[in-house]
């Protein structure tokens, strides 16, 4: 059998150097080499001893560096720093001495002096990418992100074309700064340089997911899983991608794997809980959310778990609990305008309250119904999004608003700075502040516009909204590919009107440009609105217009069973809505077939007897 030589170890090097030193006693180079070998073996006492002997006969900078580092490792910070200062003075043109001194000064909290030493080293080696990389990391540690970004860019520009370290640093910095669009090409380049590295594939996949490029993200993450045993983080990202494209079963599979690998990971529990909620397994989801709240109390993860719990409670009609937990959202979204104002507690007051929206237009429209009740407790200045301003102002003619408007307790503003309010609140917080557990229905609260010279035709006029904002992470689950709507569009006797703000396909009357008042005017001319879960659905609902909702599997809490009157079968928010839901968790192109066919059948029946549509 052939013998294989054992690898040459640090212990071997240390032994051989001692033999050579015995042959050449007092040689400073050998003494320093022994000091370095002892340092590598973490024998810092011996490193100090040998380095100390070396500098007695040859006080060169490199020897003082080793002495200083070894002293600091033994806990002699001041003595070690002194040795490093001597190194810098002895060998001022060596960037390594300034780099070592920089690291020691930063560790001691001497940030200004540390930066000066680092920049001195950089002046000595201005074209070396590594020094710019060190500067970028230092500046990021100090929270100076724009400066760190510039240093990271210089490091990447100076680095070799196949260098990974500088690109990795810049990409990760940009990702932490939220500049995902700029980070993605760097992660793509790293993936090209390391095509078989699962980490490179996983990192690029995570960026593609953040950019909403889900198919590419899935490809990268699945390749990462195939190349090596996956990490829990990679599986979690893959699960999120599968959720986004509507593959709920596939998402459940990888989230389960991730959870088995890291059963105590709060992020994994939160994501799996969200998925279980979408799958209708609300009790299991609630257990995970409550577990995160208990085990990670006081953390952002616990706040997010509380908000997610609210969506379970509201879906089940547990409104008193749900509105309280729904308040957790306020730390997860952009702060309300006028941070100088205190939060209103819902009690009666003489001074005005600034009421604001905080999320999408649909949310704002849905919760507008509570504003008159708020105005009964305090004068209200309502900050309305620009695209809704004209519609809300015109709607004040409706009986729903007239009393509060008449007595001067309700006014609109377009800018928070125009308000003389002394407190503020979100319209989404009004149910909790007012103690209104059930939403109720007070009649239409957004205006029907008169139909100007509209001549009734025998055909039904039906508005169709098949897609929402593509930037919404789960838009591919709630929007419908237009070609899937063929069964609807083939129903005879229908005059179709587009309510989707994209290029209008052939056969549909286009949606005119303008604000939401313009859209409301179009809706006023319709017999029926058919929509996916977007602001259009809420607009039709608030106008009292009959509308049919095409709802994804595991849809939003406001369409779930707890939001329906179990005695009458009518929706608590919009009684005129009729729901057509996906019944399976299949991929969207499969899951939409049945509800679209059901809508087509119902529309065919309605078109045969148009008088069944309520006229307004």
Automatic annotation (TrEMBL):
It comes from Acetobacter conturbans. PANTHER family: TETRATRICOPEPTIDE REPEAT PROTEIN 6 (PTHR44858), UDP-N-ACETYLGLUCOSAMINE--PEPTIDE N-ACETYLGLUCOSAMINYLTRANSFERASE SPINDLY-RELATED (PTHR44858:SF1). The keyword Repeat applies. It holds the Pfam family TPR_16. Keywords: Repeat, TPR repeat. The keyword Cell wall biogenesis/degradation does not apply. TPR repeats lie at residues 198-231, 232-265. The lineage of its organism: Bacteria, Pseudomonadati, Pseudomonadota, Alphaproteobacteria, Acetobacterales. InterPro entries: Glyco_trans_9 (IPR002201), TPR-like_helical_dom_sf (IPR011990), TPR_rpt (IPR019734), Ycf3 (IPR050498). Transmembrane segments: none annotated. This is Tetratricopeptide repeat protein.
């Amino acid at each position: 059998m052939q013998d294989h030589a054992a690898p040459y170890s640090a212990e071997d090097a240390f032994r051989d150097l001692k033999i050579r030193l015995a042959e050449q006693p007092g040689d400073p180079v050998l003494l320093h080499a022994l000091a370095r070998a002892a340092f590598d073996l973490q024998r810092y006492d011996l490193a100090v001893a040998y380095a100390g002997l070396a500098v007695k006969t040859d006080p060169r900078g490199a020897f003082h560096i080793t002495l200083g580092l070894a002293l600091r490792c033994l806990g002699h910070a001041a003595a070690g720093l002194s040795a490093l200062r001597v190194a810098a003075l002895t060998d001022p043109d060596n960037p390594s001495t300034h780099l070592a001194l920089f690291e020691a000064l930063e560790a001691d909290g001497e940030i200004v002096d540390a930066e000066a030493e680092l920049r001195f080293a950089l002046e000595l080696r201005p074209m070396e990418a590594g020094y710019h990389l060190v500067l970028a990391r230092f500046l990021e540690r100090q929270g100076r992100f724009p400066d760190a970004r510039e240093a990271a860019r210089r490091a990447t520009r100076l680095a070799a074309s196949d260098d990974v370290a500088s690109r990795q640093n810049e990409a990760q910095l940009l990702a932490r700064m939220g500049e995902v669009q700029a980070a993605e090409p760097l992660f793509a380049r790293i993936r090209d340089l390391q095509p078989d590295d699962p980490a490179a594939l996983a990192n690029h996949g995570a960026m593609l997911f953040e950019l909403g490029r889900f198919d590419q993200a899935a490809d990268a993450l699945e390749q990462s899983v195939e190349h090596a045993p996956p990490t829990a983080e990679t599986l979690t990202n893959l699960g999120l991608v599968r959720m986004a494209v509507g593959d709920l079963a596939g998402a459940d599979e990888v989230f389960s794997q991730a959870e088995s690998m890291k059963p105590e990971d709060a992020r994994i529990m939160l994501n799996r809980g969200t998925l279980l909620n979408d799958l209708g397994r609300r009790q299991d989801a609630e257990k995970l959310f409550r577990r995160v709240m208990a085990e990670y109390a006081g953390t952002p993860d616990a706040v997010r778990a509380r908000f997610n719990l609210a969506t379970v409670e509201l879906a089940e009609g547990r409104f008193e609990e749900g509105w309280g937990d729904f308040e957790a959202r306020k730390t997860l979204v952009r702060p309300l305008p006028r941070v100088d104002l205190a939060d209103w507690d819902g009690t009666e007051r003489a001074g005005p309250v600034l009421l604001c929206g905080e999320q999408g237009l649909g949310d704002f429209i849905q919760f507008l119904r509570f504003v008159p009740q708020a105005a009964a407790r305090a004068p209200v200045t309502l900050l309305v999004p620009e695209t809704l301003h004209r519609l809300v102002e015109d709607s004040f003619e409706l009986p729903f608003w007239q009393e509060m408007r008449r007595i001067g307790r309700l006014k609109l503003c377009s800018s928070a700075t125009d308000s003389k309010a002394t407190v503020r609140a979100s319209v989404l917080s009004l149910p909790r502040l007012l103690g209104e557990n059930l939403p109720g229905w007070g009649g239409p609260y957004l205006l029907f516009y008169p139909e100007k010279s509209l001549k009734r035709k025998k055909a039904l006029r039906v508005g169709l909204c098949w897609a929402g904002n593509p930037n919404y992470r789960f838009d591919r689950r709630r929007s419908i590919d237009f070609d899937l709507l063929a069964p609807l569009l083939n129903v005879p006797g229908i005059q179709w009107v587009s309510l989707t703000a994209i290029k209008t396909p052939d056969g549909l009357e286009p949606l005119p440009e303008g604000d939401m008042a313009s859209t409301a005017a179009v809706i006023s001319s319709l017999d029926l609105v058919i929509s996916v879960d977007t602001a259009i659905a809420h607009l039709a609902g608030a106008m009292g217009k009959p509308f049919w909702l095409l709802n994804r599997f595991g849809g939003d809490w406001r369409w779930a069973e707890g939001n329906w009157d179990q005695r009458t079968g009518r929706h608590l928010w919009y009684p005129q809505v009729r729901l057509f839901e996906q019944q399976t968790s299949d991929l969207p192109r499969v899951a939409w077939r049945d509800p679209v066919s059901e809508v087509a059948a119902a529309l065919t029946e309605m078109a045969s007897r148009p008088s069944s549509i309520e006229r307004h």
